[in-house]
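Working notes for the structural subgroup meeting. M.R. asked for a predicted model of this chain before we commit to crystallization trials. I am recording the input and output together here so anyone reviewing the notebook later can reproduce the run.

Input as submitted:
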Amino acid sequence: MKNVVCAVERGAARALHRMASYMYGLAARLAKDCKGQGTTEYAILVGVLVVK
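Returned structure, recorded in token form:
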């Protein structure tokens, strides 16, 4: 049972990381388009979440 829980947690962590990476890329693109108005802070915030 414990192995199943660990596998699920690992999968969830991987999915979350992938999503965060995607959001970070999206925020970086937005920052470029908008000359960094407000989206730079968002990109930094998402970057911090990815590092954690």
